[in-house]
Amino acid sequence: MITLFSILLTLIVYRMTLFLAGRFPTPLTSPVFLSTILVIAILLGFHISYEEYTPAKEIMTFLLGPATVALAVPIYKNRDLLSKYFGAALMGLIAGTILTIATALLLAKGIHFSKTVLLALSIKSVTVPVATEIGKILKGNQPLIVAFVIITGMIGAMFGPKLLSLFKIDHPYARGLSIGAIAHGIGTAEAVKEGEIQGAVSGAAMGIAAILTSCILPYIIPIFL
């Protein structure tokens, strides 16, 4: 009964936040951000623990698989456009991946964070399934890694499109590439709302950035430890 209630609660709250985001489009009304806060608040109000919510979470998380695979459809439909700028996009992704990792590690090192936090921060811009596997190899703290990945995705989805518009970056390819490389799946969901091209490029960028991070990170981490 609690599982069914939790699923219905999550769906209703998310639909409600989608409506609010449409009526009042601000970073703070971003559906992923706002719905997360509301669901947590309601669960606390009904004294439903995370352990009790977990079965519902696992059912909904299972559906992420088909949703992620579905991203291949817009990628295939826009394959000519993706290949047209692939060389420049790949160079940008390589540079962006290295800078993202290095910036996070330099910040963590400068603030004297522990090795555990440092490792978790270094993987923050990679989608959760890949981040957790990298974390296992590096012997990182799995819950902390997941938390940083989700927070990064939320921030990217909330503020990424606004910052791109602020700097007058309007090309759909550039917008999708930026959001997908930094804010992975959560950002890609936001990019899809902008248009099919943005969603396709973001999905491709998310996957390529994950591969690049997996290859580059083992060589960068020892420098900072």
Topology summary:
Layout: H1 2-23, H2 31-45, H3 50-62, H4 64-70, H5 72-77, H6 79-84, H7 86-110, H8 115-122, H9 128-138, H10 142-166, H11 172-194, H12 196-224
Helix pairs in contact: 1-2, 1-3, 7-8, 7-11, 7-12, 8-10, 9-10, 10-11, 11-12
Structural class comes to: mainly alpha
Tell me the series of helices and strands, N- to C-terminal: HHHHHHHHHHHH
* Integer-rounded radius of gyration: 18 Å
Strand content: under 5%
The total domain count is 2
- The proportion of residues forming helix, as a percent range, comes to over 70%
Number of helices: 12
Tally the beta strands.
0
Overall form = globular
Q: Could you give the distance between the termini?
A: 48 Å
Mean pLDDT: 88
Q: Uncertain regions: pLDDT < 50 for 5+ in a row?
A: none
What summary fits the major beta sheet? none
Which features characterize this protein?
mainly alpha; 225 residues; 12 helices
Kindly describe this structure.
By secondary structure, the chain is mainly α. The protein folds into 2 domains: 1-62; 71-224, no CATH class. The chain contains 12 helices and no strands. The protein has helices at 2-23, 31-45, 50-62, 64-70, 72-77, 79-84, 86-110, 115-122, 128-138, 142-166, 172-194, 196-224. Helix 1 crosses helix 2 (31-45), helix 1 (2-23) packs across helix 3 and helix 7 (86-110) packs antiparallel against helix 8 (115-122). The longest helix is centred in the last third of the chain and has 29 residues, at 196-224.
